[in-house]
Known about the structure:
With about 260 residues, the chain is α+β, with helices and mostly antiparallel strands. It has nine helices and twelve strands.
Amino acid sequence: MKKLFFIACILLCQQSFALEFAKYPIKLTSAKGENVVIIPSTDKKQALVKVTGINHEIDDIVFLTDLKPHGSNNAYKYTYDGTQRSLVSVNAGYRCCSYTLYIPDTRDGIYLTIKEESNPVIVEDIKAQYQQQLSNNTQAKLATFNREKHLESQQKNILAANKEIDKQCGLKINTYVDWKSIDDTSLKQYAVGSFCAQVAKEIASMCKKDQSFKSDLAQFNAIECQFTNELKLRKNNNTLIFKTAPKAANQRQFIEAYLLNL
């Protein structure tokens, strides 16, 4: 797959320089100093986009983006961390246009305003920078799914839930997940850590409401979570076996009902 991905990147490189770009770039800035340069292709279907002034690994990287629908507007989209994302949205409303920057791993967009000056020299500079970065596989590396980063984030949810049991119940009941069994597609699409932390969270919540509940839990020292297509909870000696299904409804109520009947 990785080989095919890099071949695709080479083809994109060839495509990018077969494209004709506008003579003048669009220069944008935010109130806090984030800066964006957009160089649209002459057919306005694609653009080279460069973002600077942000504390993120995409800072100063030039991406060849596609202008695609984004809600009721359009956005310049690129691939980052295995997923196509909007980098800058374009609201072509009255008097056209307003722009919003979206930085990966952040929630809110950043409103941008247009700078008046626009130097055509910038176009050739950014094209050269793009070519250099592409030859170093810079964009390809950023486009590849970062499994380790996602695992670290998901595991934090599990650790936080384990600590909450200790805090509320005074018990050491740790949640375990066989992360090797979780494929990349599931990690990209679902908050696996949050799903698997549900039993621990519910246990802590029930202890907080009623301290006598912890006597029923003293028999357990582990929760084993399996990410599946069915919702089940059972006990096996001193372990709670939890099968969570991302599309199953009312999981919290299901867990609570089981725990109350231990």
